[in-house]
Write the structure tokens for this entry.
Amino acid sequence: MLEPLERPAARKAVLLLGFEPRVVDFSNYPGLDEAKLRAGLAVSLEATTAAGFDAEWCLVTTDWPEVEATVRARSSPATTPRS
């Protein structure tokens, strides 16, 4: 008798929130620059995805009204990634 196929578990959607690298003041972080930060963000996204999450970055500036609107828009159920 054949065993029923198991459905993969639903993946959780994750919105990773961080500053847009172009707005970061790197003077307090010797050896870090925009390119290295972007590379680190990509590695973090890959690791989160590899851990079984549907993940995406939401990178924001320091314009707080814009940040709030962006985060609200990106975290609404209609825009959250699904598997």
About this structure: The mean pLDDT is 87. The radius of gyration is 17 Å.
